[in-house]
Amino acid sequence: MTHSMRTDTHTPYPDGRGDWRDTAVRYALLPLRIFLGVTFIYAGLDKLTDSAFMKEAGSGSVGDMMRAVRDSSAVPALVDLSLKNPVGFGYAIAFGELAVGIGTLLGLLARLAALGGALISLSLWLTVSWASDPYYYGNDLAYLMAWIPLVLAGAPLLSVDAALRARRRRRRGEYR
């Protein structure tokens, strides 16, 4: 004789709509998606509109920032690569942040956008914030960890991806 242990601790409403916990679970990643989307859009725009940042050298420039972290980074070769064209690297990061932020906020190619955000955060952690001591002072590692749930789950609600998925289902005659 087998015994099954019940693992749910709440009872859904009789009409099948579930209770508030079911709703909370469905929407749990939305605040994270909004935060990361807005933050990356802001970061990209901030870089693009900062006249000092998009320069090869000078106070506040991407070039000086990369030269300053070169010897303390985990991957100096990555910094060396950025220093071949610091301004191009600055634009690549800024436009990458914009694309990631917009995709994440709209839920458009959300997993791909989140993967892009994770890769940007990983590269910044391994270079710019690697020397943070203790490690939790560097925010890039926290951003990297924040992207992982969105890489795994995407944007299943309130997103372009969800609308496109629903549209495909309707066309195939699926109603679930």
What is the strand and helix layout of this fold?
Blueprint: H1 20-27, H2 30-49, H3 62-69, H4 76-83, H5 86-106, H6 110-127, H7 139-153, H8 160-172
Q: Give the low-confidence spans.
A: none
Form type: elongated
Task: Classify the helix fraction into a percent range.
Answer: 55-70%
- Alpha-beta classification: mainly alpha
Q: Strand fraction band?
A: under 5%
| Major beta-sheet overview | none
Total count of helical runs of at least 4 residues? 8
Radius of gyration: 21 Å
Name the helix and strand elements from N-terminus to C-terminus, one letter apiece. Answer: HHHHHHHH
Number of strands: 0
Q: N- to C-terminal separation?
A: 35 Å
What is the mean predicted local confidence, pLDDT? 90
Structure explained in plain terms:
It is a single chain. The protein is an all-alpha fold. The chain is built from eight helices and no strands. It has helices at residues 20-27, 30-49, 62-69, 76-83, 86-106, 110-127, 139-153, 160-172. Helix 5 (86-106) packs antiparallel against helix 6 (110-127).
Key terms:
single chain, 176 residues, mainly alpha, 63% helix
Give the structure's gist in a few sentences:
By secondary structure, the chain is mostly helical. It contains 8 helices and no strands. The mean pLDDT is 90.
